[in-house]
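Appendix B, record 7
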Amino acid sequence: MTSTSTTPANPATLFKSPVRAVWNVQGENVPTLWWPAKGQLTTKTAKGTEQPVHTVLFMIPGNPGLIDYYIPFLQTVHDKCDGKIDIFGASHLGHSAGDHVTDTSRMYTLEEQVESKIAILDRLREQYPAGTRFILAGHSMGSWLALRVLKARPNHGIERLFELFPTIHRIADTPNGRKLQNLFKPSVRSIVGGTVSTLRFIFSAPPILRSIVSLFTGQESDMAQVTSQQLLHSSVVKNCLFLAGQEMEAIKVMDKETIKQHADKFVFYYGKTDEWSPIENYYEMQKEFPQCKSMLCEQGMVHAFVLGHGEAMGLLVGQWIHDM
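Structure tokens (predicted):
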């Protein structure tokens, strides 16, 4: 009698698009995306030799915190790294609709978003071998969340933080913060949420709603799909506005101590015309932390780079990872 053994299939060879899953994190259901690694990148040892190393990129979205907006960006990063890194991304609590949502009336605080991201990193660290290097990529207010994760877990193997169009202080004093502050008031949140519900009722056919979103926002088909089918729900919009209001109140003073302690880990990337993180922030960072790597976009990318510049940003981030 002969026996045959089967080797478990590598998920990276089975899926060309990211693997979708809902993780239960501290009792809350969180939509996630995962790009499995196909092999490993190498890093130089102290002796100058090359050795393979597990590399995991954890993407923390801005607001709205729908990870699906980041698919073109993260797919490009994965491709640029020849598929040799694991990429994991998670939506914010309350920023998605679907069967995984058990309470549409729940409003999630900024601190709850922080704790959720810390818990996700803890789980990722448990699932990968010792010596795995972790990279946190934060966009907009996600950069502030990434900073909080590093502060809470400084010994978890976090080697880099890519802070993309970061809003890590004085959000309420930015041009957009001043213009949009009334939008985050409870009464206005309710009106906006009701308006979204009405739109979904009138334009119930998904293709029609997607077309309307594309027409009025200029978003390409895949991004208009995310907006129309995942963002435009009353509970999601209310959570986004509620979180934004909390950001205005909480994200005021830069955590200079944590940045100084880990200065060699940071890459800050600013836009020239960003009204959420003005160019003055770039100059301030250069002056305050010359030991950090601060960069100013020369490609004309906007704050919401995922809406049209995801691939371009992905090429940059992929190269940064190669250069580690």
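Remarks on this record: Residues 110-127 form the longest helix (18 residues). The chain has a mean pLDDT of 92.
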